[in-house]
Amino acid sequence: MDPELIPIVETLPEFSFVDLASTRAVLDELAASLEPDLNGIVIERHSVPGLAGEPDVEIQVVRPREARPRRAALVTFHSGGFAVGSAELDLAFNVELARRLDAVVVAVDYRLAPEHPFPAAVNDGYGALVWLAGGGGGLDVDTARVAVVCESAGGGLAASVALMAREQGGPPIRMLCLLEPELDDRLGTPSMNQAHANVTWKRDQAVLSWEYYLRGGSGEPSPIAAPARQTDLSGLPEAYVTVNQLDCLRDEGLDFARLLLASGGLVELHCWPGTVHGFRVLAPGSAVARRAVELLISALDRALNEPASAPADRESEEQAHA
C-alpha cells in the first residue's frame, strides 16, 4: 500500500452497510462540517423536472461567480454504494472542478436505495442531463461541452446514464469519467474475491449495495442497471477510467475499459498503484491523490476547452508525442 495511505486506512472507522440510518447520519454530519473555499464560487440548490412520470430531481449547482456565457458543464453523481451519501460530500471536489475548469457543475442528489431501488437513481441522473440539455433553467451552458464525472456507485450510474442516452438518442456527452466505478452485480471478478483488495470497500458491502439497489427486481438485471452486463459499448462517449490496485472493484473497471476499447471507443485508463477504494477522498493531500486529480482535470480541460478533433487526429497527435 502507498505509504501515505497506511496510517489513514489503519485508523479508518468501519461504516456499516447494514445500519444505513446510522451511516447516513454520520455522513450528513461530516458533510455539514466541511468548509471548502468558496471564494469566487456560487452554490445553488434547485429542484428540476425529472423524466415524464418521475418526481423532480434535487441538484446542487456549483459555478464561478463571474458571469460568462456558454461555459462547459459537468454532471456528477456522488458515491455511496447507491444507498448513502450526498452531493454535499463532494462539494469541495466540485468547487475545485468548477474553479479550475471554469465550468458549471451540476451535482445530482439522486434518490437512494433501498427506499428507491433501480431505476430511480438512473432516471434522476438521466432526467438531470435532459434538463441541462434543454436549457438548464437559464444556466447558459454550452450543451455541446458536457462531461459526466462520477465515482464508485456514481460511476456505475454514469455508465448507465450514458447507455440510456445512446439507446434513446439522448443528450450528447463529450466525456464520460468513471472513477473507481461500481458496475457489476455478479461480484465474480478476481479482485472482488481477493483479501488484499477488500480494504476500504469490501465484498460484503458490495453484496448489500447491489441487493439494496436491485431490490424488487426479478430475473437478471438489465445492462442499464448493471453496465458490466452490456456486451456492446459502441457509440459511447470518449471515456476516462480509473481503478485502484487494492480495490475489490478494480477488475470490473478494467473489464469495462477493455470492452470500451474493443467496441471502438476512445479510452484513457489509469490504474493507481498501492491505492485503495476512495483514496482521493480519504487522503486528498497525498501525492498519489494530487496526481490523480491533476490528470483528471487535464483530461477534462482537453476534452471540454480545446477544439474538438476526430479520433484519428488524436491518435496522430499521440503518436507524434510518443
Protein architecture, described:
This protein is α/β, with parallel strands linked by helices and 322 residues long. Helices cover 37% and strands 20% of the residues. The protein has 10 helices and 8 strands. The chain has helices at residues 6-10, 20-33, 91-101, 120-133, 153-168, 203-213, 250-262, 279-282, 287-305, 311-321, and strands at 41-48, 57-64, 71-77, 104-109, 141-151, 175-179, 238-246, 267-276. The chain has an 8-stranded mixed beta sheet, sandwiched between helices. Strand 1 (41-48) and strand 2 (57-64) form a beta hairpin. The chain is globular, with a radius of gyration of 18 Å. It starts with 5 loop residues before the first helix and ends with a helix.
Write the layout of secondary structure elements.
Blueprint: H1 6-10, H2 20-33, E1 41-48, E2 57-64, E3 71-77, H3 91-101, E4 104-109, H4 120-133, E5 141-151, H5 153-168, E6 175-179, H6 203-213, E7 238-246, H7 250-262, E8 267-276, H8 279-282, H9 287-305, H10 311-321
Parallel strand pairs: 3-4, 3-5, 5-6, 6-7, 7-8
Antiparallel strand pairs: 1-2, 2-4
Helix pairs in contact: 4-5
Give the tags:
single chain, 322 residues, alpha/beta, eight-stranded mixed β-sheet, 10 helices, 8 strands, disordered C terminus
| Mean pLDDT metric | 93
- Report the strand count: 8
Strand content: 15-25%
| Secondary-structure content class | alpha/beta
**Spatial strand order of the main sheet:** 1-2-4-3-5-6-7-8
Count of helix runs: 10
What series of H and E elements makes up the topology? Answer: HHEEEHEHEHEHEHEHHH
* Main sheet makeup: 8 strands, mixed
Give the end-to-end Cα distance, rounded to a whole number of Å.
Answer: 30 Å
Low-confidence residue ranges: 316-322
Q: Give the overall silhouette.
A: globular
The whole-angstrom Rg is 18 Å
Helix content: 25-40%
